[in-house]
Amino acid sequence: MGVIKRQDLAEGEHSFALWKDTAEHEISGVLNGKNTYFSDPAGSFSAGDGKQGEGVDDLPRRIWAMAVRYSLFLLERKAPGEGVEVRVAPWGAIKILDGPASDPHNLTPPDVIELEPDVWLRLACGITTWAEEKEAGHISAVGERDDLSDLLPL
After folding, report:
1. What is the pLDDT of residues 83-127, one digit of tens each?
2. What's the total number of domains in the chain?
3. Fewer CB atoms inside 10 A, N or C side of the chain?
4. Which regions of the chain does DSSP assign to beta strands (E)?
């Protein structure tokens, strides 16, 4: 369990729930208050008129970090293994799923998935789907096992 310390699990769980609640509130406010909503390339949710309200972008950096680490911990427990590396920089990387492990010379598994923290958390919380994020170009994935949709949301 390298992505989060055991003593930080409760804080991580709280941070993950807080991020999810904030994102859902932000989205529902945009959807209920405006006729349009979109996710810009940076990943923040905003109303069609370009105004942004209080939301996930306003959460402290530690909340983001602990939410990412805790959600990666959940994924690691859900799909243990060494075959696929999931990277959510700057806060964590894990290896999951059975399969060929890292090459002993370069230590990188044959399948690598890289995500921005906001993209990862939206997926982990079920706010967006793998297909939506992949189509939007928000997921960098290399290898045969480049789809985590069967494991998400957490």
Report:
1. 899 999 999 999 999 876 666 666 666 789 999 999 999 999 999
2. 1
3. N
4. 37-39, 45-47, 80-88, 92-96, 111-115, 139-142
